[in-house]
Every structure is written in structure tokens, then in C-alpha cells.
Amino acid sequence: MPSDPTSIDRENRDDSDALLRGQMVDRQLAGRGINNERVLDAIRRAPRHQFVPKRLQDRTYDDSPLPIGNGQTISQPYIVGLMTELVDLQADDRVLDVGTGSGYQAAVLAELVDQVDSIEIVETLAKDADQRLKSLGYKNVRVHHGDGYAGWPSGAPFDAIVVAAAPDHVPPALIDQLAPGGKLVIPVGDRLQSLMLIEKRSDGEVVRRKVAPVMFVPMTGEAEK
User: Which residues participate directly in catalysis (predicted)?
Assistant: First the structure.
């Protein structure tokens, strides 16, 4: 029986993208200091091309953010790797992803933990990301439509929170929803933004440190008030 040409083309594309992802990880992540092997392997597995608009497929593996519509972006691969490495995930961690966007960061997190809650303020993006993640087999991601400034109280406390939009201050709800020993990584600022790592120690003390200058889309909704 003759092979299905469409199936062969798809398999060839998948093989090609796997090769390009491997090169991206080696050059853009490992080559710039990301050394957590679990994180690198997760990014090798997550099919980034499935989360990039078709018109930008030739830029899938550029080390830069790309527009996905509605004024939002998919973060550059290095930043996804850095933020994921900073929260230092364990398989049984409860994770909140704020700013679902295309769903790519959620997919990378889902490669590392059993359950991810992801929240997106733009309803069409939330619906599209939910369908995309399910179609790709990510059954351990729950996408919610809502304002990430308030976190996701019904899922708290979280061992890790990863935020992909920049408020001008750290939302108090996200710190409240962080479990003792948990980590929050978030871009903070207006024109000048810093990636912040916030840790809640076992005694409840909150420790903050700046990691790197970044540029994210601004957080909308309650954060704008």
C-alpha cells in the first residue's frame, strides 16, 4: 500500500524541527549558561513550532520574542529557559503559569511537573492555547481565563509561579499564593524592567533579587490601576 505523502511530509517536518530545537538548545541556552539538564531536555521535547504563528514559522528558533496576536508575544527561547531554570522544579511541584499566551511556557513546564495551572487574561488566547495544548497531548495543563494579577486562588499554594507579563510592582496575591519554600519569577517595571526571583522561605520570610534586565509586554487588567 503506498505511503501517505502528507504523513511523510509531516514526519520530515517533525524530524527537521527536532533537529532545529536541539541546535537552539545547544547554542542559545546551554551556550549562554543554562545548565539544568532537565530544563534543557524539556525544551528539546516541547514542539516550539506548534506555538508560533504560521506566518512566522521561519523565525521559530530565533532567539527573540515573536508576536502571536492581541498585542502578546511568545518569549525568546533563552528567557523561557532562564525562567524555568530559576524556579528549580521538582516533578510533584504545583506550578502556576501567568500569561498563557500561545501556551509554550506552559508546555515546557508541563514537561517537568505533573500539573500546571495557566491563566490568560485574553479570552481568545486562552481558548486557543487550551485547544493547542490538548491537541499536542498536554493533558496535565489546565488553562484558565482570568486576570493573572490575582493569581489562581483555588489552586494555591504553588511551589513555583512563572509570570510572562510585566507589572510595575509585584502583585501581592502572587506572593500570598506562593508556598513556603516556593519561588516566583517575574519581570517587573515599566520602561526599564528587571527579571526578579522571589523566594518565600520556610519561615515565611520573602527574599527578592534582580536577575537580569528584560523586556516583556506589560501586564494588563488590575495591574494597570
Answer: 75
